[in-house]
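Lab notes, practical 5.
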Amino acid sequence: MRVIVQEQAFDFAAEADRFSQGAGGAGAIVTFTGVVRDADAGGLAAMEIEHYPGMTQKALEEIATQAMTRWDLSDALVIHRHGRLEIGAQIMMVATAARHRVAAFEAAEFLMDYLKSRAPFWKKEILASGNTSWVAAKDADEDALNRWSQD
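Output from the prediction step:
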C-alpha cells in the first residue's frame, strides 16, 4: 500500500504500470484519476488545494488501510496533489488490486468517495475574473460516502 501527497504532477501510466507489476495474485486492478474541470465553462482559471501535511498523510493512510482490510485487497495506491492546479491537471489517482473485480471496484469507489468528502484538503476555486471562493461540501458527495457506512 502506498499513500502519496505531493505538489508535483505524476505520470499516470508509469504509476499504473508500477502498481500492476506489484499486484501479484490479483485478478482485478481498478484505477481512477480525477482532474480539474471547469464546471461553468470558462468561469474557472485554476484550483488551489491546501492541507496540513502530517494530518493529511495520516488520514489517507488510515482510510487506505480500512479499504485494504474491508475488501481484502492485495494492494492499494492513493496519490493526491496539493498546490495550484490548472484546468485539466490531475488531482488524484486511486488504484486497487484484488482477487475479484467487485472488491477492486468497490474499494476504489470507497476511496474516491472518501477523498471527495472527508480527506483533509481545502479547495479554493480561482475564477477567471480573479475572484476566489472556497469549495463547499455537496450533499451528493456526502450521500455517496454514507453508502459505505457499516452497520
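Observations recorded by the TA: The radius of gyration is 16 Å. The chain has a mean pLDDT of 93.
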